[in-house]
Amino acid sequence: MNEDELSKMNGSPPDEPEPDLLASLVPAKVADSLDGDEVAAEDQPAFSRRQFLTSLAVMGAAVGLGSQLVKTPAASAATTTTATQPAQATSRTRATLPQWTMIMDLRYCNGCNDCTTACQYTHVLPKDITWIKVYEMSNPDGQSYYLPRLCQMCEDPPCQAVCPVGATFRNDEGIVLIDQNVCIGCRTCMAACPYESRYFNTEPMPTVPKQPFPPSPEWPVPQQMNTVGKCVLCAADLSKGMLPSCAQACGMGVIYLGDLTSDVAVNSQGNAVKLSQFVKENDAVHLKEELGTNPRVWYIPGHGQDWKDSY
Amino acid sequence: MSRMTTYERLPQDDPERQKLREAAIRPMVQKPGRGYKLLVGVLGILVILALVAFYLQIVDGRSVDAYSNEAFWGLFIANFITIVGASYGGAVVSAVLRLVGATWRAPLVRIAEATAVATVIVGGAAIIPSVGVPGRMWEFIARPNFSSPLIWDALAIGTYAFASIVFFFLPVIPDLAVAKETMGDRAGKTRTTIWRWLSCRWNGSGRQEKLLGRMMTILAIMIIPLAVSVHSVLGWAFANTSFRPWWSEELWAPLFVIAALYSGIANVILSLAALRHAYHLEDYITERHFKSLGLLMLPFGAAYLYMEVADFLPGSYHGEPGTAAVFKQLFVGSYAPWFWLFIVMGIVVPILIVSMRRTRKIGWIVLAAGFVVPTFWLNRFLMVAVPATYDMINGSFGTYAWTWENIAITLGSVAAVPLILLLIFRVVPILSVTEMENMEMESLAQEAEALMHAGNGNGNGYVQREKALEGTYRPGATDEFEEEDDFARGEEEE
Ligand code: SF4
Ligand code: SF4
């Protein structure tokens, strides 16, 4: 990632971090868990899971090296080092595989669009294709708030059901992906997705610099023209212990990557939380729960949203 | 009894018959005039332009024809629904008239069925420019996902297209023999070869005729549920796949079926009028046919209007945010002029025209049909594009842009229909001579009686339920004859 851009993205620390959030910042614990592979399981189950170590290591490095809340370019270098560790996901059975989720803490979103820019930069997308898009929404009382929308990684994805050729699928880690070598570009999935998460690549893609991986559903870079694409939760990076690029880029720590299996969620600010507890205590909701798509992305309201405008 | 072919049973030198046969082969022998050449030239250019535009959008991406992420479905889907819908009219009109034994159908079934074939071919092709990577469409067969409505769509349309082609083709077979006999030397080599291929060793024996008649009855019965299913599945391709407002309506399948019937009949009226004028078929295709078809449009138009109200009223009344936003766009928003244009010109005015005796004339009815066909295309476009441009997160509407490419493809697909029709009638008689002669034969009471009593029936086994022979192109049938006909049929069925 372009370093200037990255530091620009990460340049704005939260204005007024909530005290309880600060209390739950855990660099020390992270360091612990890095040293010994196992940590006392009962009180801190969150940090005892192997599959989450690497992503915590990212944050540990970030916090340790920068000795401040924001990740510096140096930290991003550390990220790359961590990424060279062998992926641990290979020998696991499905039950112990991570099940990725996201939590969007809307209380801190200031609508800066850094996530969108970072995502477009990482996946080499043209301007109008926004796999994560920050909507400005308005409350009935006239105030506005921001709603970053990405693929909700539905557990019952309607987009998968309607794909006539089975190009859309859900992998073992709960990530909904598109095989662009199969997709015929009929856009039925765009009709089906109630979250506007999908994008049709109407134009030739910009030229793409050399990529760490060949194009695959997990890393669909470059995108294929005339097929459909969407957020892939940076699936190829997750196994290397990296946060998705939007989460990395969010200087406000809005975007948490979570894992249902280990019940942990972390954001770019080194804030690691127990997922189930965090979600419950903050009254997190899914978008359009009534549609039965069982999304995996939580939103923590905090601006008096009444969610009436979920269409 | 030694069998004669149908046309041998009739007096050979009857001038009426000669006239009919000449009329039926007129498109093949008529010297192409300047108008004809001009027409074919223009249509051909339009089709070629469409192909060029199609190529461009494959190379340059779908943005060249207005697809954006604000409007992921649009024009081509509307074209597809409209053209396939037009086919419905021809097939079902012909099938229903066959089944109820309406004898007046004889002169128009060929044109109706040919229209059905031409439109189903073009309609099926019209979906291709909408698909992002047409080269991968074989995956529909190679790796179908049967939970997708689109697979059922493809299956239904494929089956229906096949059935309607057979339905068109079967009654053509005996006519080829007639054409061959009438044309004589004028036929030319190519045409003779094609006929030999197409005629499937037809020799006009009674057995063959009986088989053919039975096949036609079975097909006529089959084609109705097939067509209903095609248009229902089309509606469900929206209603099932999507949570979008207005698309996710239970009413969409019947709405599609009725719309297809209504606009399909209008389409038949238009092609009847055009071909009648071009090939001077005024003696055979008469005002009566237009009146009957116009009256047939009436209930479907009324039903459609009723269902529109049933569709819109609940949504606008309790006003869920999405549905309300879409309906508002339609009623008073930026699409309102088009929507009301459709309601008035597509439904109200045509219904008025055909329901008033004073305007129930050929010209007026053709005018009404001329209103219906394009406004129903407009209606489909609104049905597709308005919900598609709606943003399900913040409730805003995207815009739909027009480009020359998508207009070219649309015009090209419209132009392809008459082009295929003209091509078909270069090979196939434009009137179903055999059928008309069969009907005529019935009206020649004497001869018919003799043949019936000999146990042949009229040889073609068509179900004859309707008594009234009124309106055949050759008046003169009597009630006594009708009774004979019934009697004969009774024998035949034993
Ligand atoms: S959010 Fe949309 S694209 Fe993502 S899984 Fe759900 S339906 Fe599919
Ligand atoms: S556009 Fe591609 S992924 Fe979407 S439904 Fe069609 S084939 Fe499937």
In the CATH classification, which architecture of the largest domain in chain A applies? 2-Layer Sandwich
Instruction: Provide the helix percentage of chain A.
Output: 25-40%
Could you tell me which ligands this complex binds, including any ions or cofactors?
Answer: iron/sulfur cluster
Q: Can you identify the CATH class of the largest domain in chain B?
A: Mainly Alpha
Total E-strand runs of chain B: 0
Name of the CATH architecture of the largest domain in chain B: Up-down Bundle
| Total count of strands of chain A | 11
Largest sheet of chain A, in brief, is: 5 strands, mixed
Instruction: Output the structural class of chain A.
Output: alpha+beta
Shape of chain A: globular
How would you describe this structure in keywords?
heterodimer, A: 311 residues, alpha+beta, Alpha-Beta Plaits, 2 domains, five-stranded mixed sheet, two-stranded antiparallel sheet, 15% strand, disordered N terminus, B: 494 residues, mainly alpha, 0% strand, globular, binds iron/sulfur cluster
Structural description of this entry:
The complex is a heterodimer of chains A (311) and B (494). Chain A has helices spanning 3-10, 19-23, 27-35, 53-66, 73-83, 114-123, 158-162, 188-192, 235-238, 245-249, 275-281, and strands at residues 100-105, 133-138, 144-149, 168-170, 176-178, 198-200, 228-230, 255-259, 264-267, 272-274, 297-300. Chain A has 311 residues and is α+β, with helices and mostly antiparallel strands. Chain A folds into two domains: 3-96, no CATH class; 100-310, Alpha-Beta Plaits (2-Layer Sandwich), CATH 3.30.70. In chain A, the strands form four sheets. A five-stranded mixed β-sheet of chain A has the order 10-9-8-1-11. A two-stranded antiparallel ribbon of chain A has the order 2-3. In chain A, helix 3 packs across helix 4 (53-66) and helix 4 runs antiparallel to helix 5. Chain B has helices at residues 6-9, 15-24, 26-29, 34-60, 75-99, 106-126, 139-142, 149-183, 189-198, 206-239, 252-278, 287-318, 321-331, 336-355, 362-389, 404-427, 433-443, 445-453, 479-493. With 494 residues, chain B is mainly alpha-helical. The longest helix of chain B has 35 residues, at 149-183. Chain B has two domains: 26-429, Up-down Bundle (Formate dehydrogenase/DMSO reductase fold), CATH 1.20.1630.10; 450-493, no CATH class. Classes of the chains: A alpha+beta (311), B mainly alpha (494). Chain A binds chain B through residues 128-129, 135-137, 147, 149, 158, 161-166, 182-188, 190-192, 194-196, 199-204, 225-228, 288, 291, 308-311, and chain B through 58, 60-63, 67-69, 72-73, 130-134, 136-137, 139-140, 142-145, 147-151, 154, 237-238, 240-245, 247, 321-322, 325, 388, 391-395.
